Amino acid sequence: MSVSILVGAQFGDEGKGKIVDYISAKADMVVRFQGGDNAGHTVVNEFGAFKLHLIPCGIFKPSCITLAGTGMVINPDELLHEISDLEANGINTSNLYISSRAIILMPYHIQLDCLSESSGRTGIGTTKRGIGYAYADKARRNALRFEDLLDLEYCEHRLEMVLPTVNAELVAKEGVPMGKIELLQKLRAWAKLLAPRIVEPVSFVNRAIDNGLEILFEGQLGAMKDIDLGIYPYVTSSNPTAAYAAASSGFPISKITEIIGVLKAFSSAVGSGPFPTEIKGNDADVFRGSGQNIDDEFGARTGRPRQVGWLDLPVLKYAATINGFTSLAVCKIDKLDMFDEIKICTHYSLDGKDIDYMPSAHQLEKVVPVYITVPGWKTETRKIRNFDDLPQNARNYLNIIEKATGVPIKYIGVGPSRDEIIVKSVSK
Q1: What is the C-alpha separation between 323 and 92, in angstroms, rounded?
Q2: Same domain, 35 and 69
Q3: Same domain, 13 and 76
Q4: Is residue 237 situated within a structural domain?
Q5: Active-site annotation holds for 41
Q6: Within a domain: residue 410?
Q7: Active site residue: 21, 28, 37, 41, which one?
Q8: Which domain holds residue 383?
Q9: Are residues 214 and 66 in the same domain?
């Protein structure tokens, strides 16, 4: 039995989809434990190229059970679209299940999000998918859960209870109130299509653990977007850190055997908020690409060009501290192949003083990143499959990451496809 948790070590978009897809070849169950369809995991394998926003990346293995977990907020229309797209490409989705305790993301959540962003008063660069408003309703106990779809009479009662508050908010934001009949029609349609997939999650997960299954918990976004520990308020509305996998799924943390932190060999971010190591100009264009390739630096959900920057060791050390990584996966090392020199941020200076902690988002806007410069390797790495075959300067670069974080590197991505990976032996 093993219970592994895989989470992002930066600002999201680190390459988690590729690593989950690779690791899930040995997994019996993959659980997505938080987030919604505001971000995507890009997977490239023998079935094609996919951008999954809600469905766990283990879906491509026929024998793997996949669970959209309790900590998620799920737009059923988006989920059904994703299921349809996978099945149209020959992927069997019969092993996909939904936690009965997951939150239903409703149409009014999306409208409220769009109104807030367009007003300019409270916008923080969200994807306008309604994620924050769905989590807000969860916190104030106004949300509908997937278990409600199993009892439509009760579901109607719940809708009647929350709709007056929802419509008052819509009117206050100069939006359009929503009708009960229209929403009930949606709920009934969702129930018909999704009810067979809804399971009681705590017994579902713990039974799998007790039966000795290989289980992988898959996080969305990254440590710096955690609502409690990230660059608040420029964060997501859930906790994409490892401990939340246990907290939201209802299993004891003592069962966790591995925590994998996924990072890019450089930095990237989408949306508003501080990004200390950002670079612009030609170097940024090399990282970002044109947008025509699956691994170019454009948002999987929004298509927005990502900010890109040099590797930020303070972010990685912070992520390692709050997650307790046991191993790392470094993706996109191949994107550095053409650089003569590569900069690495080793620490920050704030108000003229070096600091050894992660400051608040407001302070992070003011820090000055302190860099070292290391030689590049000017050699193509995409076809390399053994660590010892990497250029010495590439190995030196990876060693700097290991030394700074105190965590061994286990996986090295050298391209977007599943097989474009180096698995490095990790001493225990």
Answers
A1: 33
A2: yes
A3: yes
A4: yes
A5: yes
A6: no
A7: 41
A8: 265-315+334-403+416-423
A9: yes
Over residues 6-29, mean pLDDT: 92
Residues contacting 306, CB < 8 A, separation 6+: 13, 268, 269, 270, 288, 297, 298, 299
Per-residue pLDDT tens for 107-156?
999 999 999 887 666 556 677 889 999 999 999 999 999 999 999 999 99
CATH, residue 172 = 1.10.300.10
Is residue 323 situated within a structural domain? no
- The verdict on 216 and 93 lying in the same domain is yes
The most distant pair of C-alpha atoms in the chain lies apart, rounded to whole Å, by: 66
Task: Give every CB contact of residue 80 below 8 A, 6+ residues apart in sequence.
Answer: 190, 193, 194
Q: How far is CA 223 from the centre of its chain?
A: 9
pTM above 0.90, yes or no: yes
What are the distances in angstroms from CA 273 to CA 31, 55, 142, 298, 313? 29, 28, 29, 17, 18
Predicted local distance difference test score (pLDDT) of residue 306: 85
pLDDT score recorded for residue 367: 96
Q: Are residues 126 and 55 in the same domain?
A: no
pLDDT of residue 38: 81
Assess contact for 14 and 222: CB atoms under 8 A.
Answer: yes
List, for residues 319-375, the tens digit of each pLDDT value.
999 999 999 999 999 999 999 999 999 999 999 999 989 999 999 999 999 999 999
Residue 216: which residues within 8 A CB-CB, separation 6 or more?
4, 5, 6, 20, 23, 24, 27, 29, 30, 31, 58
Residues 69 and 135 in one domain: no
The pLDDT tens digits of the residues spanning 273-329 come to 999 999 987 778 777 876 677 777 776 666 678 889 999 999 999 999 999 999 999
Q: Which two tokens stand for residue 280?
A: 């612009």
Q: Please, which residues have CB within 8 angstroms of residue 41's CB and are 6 or more apart in sequence?
A: 16, 17, 20, 51, 52, 53, 57, 218, 220, 300
Q: How many domains does the chain have?
A: 3
Co-location of 283 and 375 in the same domain: yes
13 included as an active-site residue: yes
Q: Which of 13, 21, 37, 137 is catalytic?
A: 13
Asked whether residue 85 falls in the same domain as residue 222, the answer is: yes
pLDDT at 422: 96
Select from 195, 225, 250 the last residue of a domain: 195
